[in-house]
Amino acid sequence: MGVEKKTIKPGDGVSYPEKGDTLQMTYIGKLKTNGQQFDSSFRKGRPFKFTIGIGQVIKGWDEGVAQMSLGETAELEITSDYGYGARGAGNVIPPNADLVFEVQLLAIQKSEEGV
Fold first, then answer.
1. How many degrees, rounded to 5, is the angle at CA 111 between CA 99 and CA 80?
2. What local confidence, expressed as pLDDT, does residue 112 receive?
3. Catalytic site residues?
4. What residues are paired with 49 via a beta bridge?
5. 33-71 burial code (b ≥16 CB/10 A, e <16)
6. What is the pLDDT of residue 32?
7. How far is the C-alpha of 88 from the C-alpha of 111, rounded, in Å?
8. How high is the mean pLDDT in each 10-residue block of the chain (115 residues)?
9. Contact (CB, 8 A) for 74 and 10
């Protein structure tokens, strides 16, 4: 249970995000059971921006993306307890669904507070 990261393309191997950093990512999210795409930053036409480690995203992202270095592309396999759990998400992610995301870490803006 949790998140498993598989590197598709290595990053710089030096710059890793830390709690409180603001990140920019591209991603494609799919259901693990059938590969159906439910979300994509490409479809929205802009990278996704969030602060890591403070619960703005699902636990699988907070933990999986923290293992990535700048520029890395990876696949995150996320079990439902690290995703949306028994509640699912809207009409697109059913309850207890395992998820697969292809993600790329584009930018890390270091936290000024050092959270």
1. 15
2. 77
3. 27, 38-39, 58, 84, 101
4. 24
5. eeeeebbbbeeeeeebebbbbeeebbbbbbbbbbebbbe
6. 97
7. 31
8. 96 97 98 96 93 96 97 98 95 95 98 65
9. no
DSSP state of 42: H
Tokens of 42: 């490409």
CA distance 62 to 21: 11
Read off the pTM.
0.93
CA distance 12 to 54: 24
Nearest to 76 by CA among 11, 32, 23, 18: 32
Amino acid (1-letter code) at residue 115? V
Q: What are phi and psi of 19, to 5 degrees?
A: -50, 130
CA within 13 Å, CB half, 112? 0
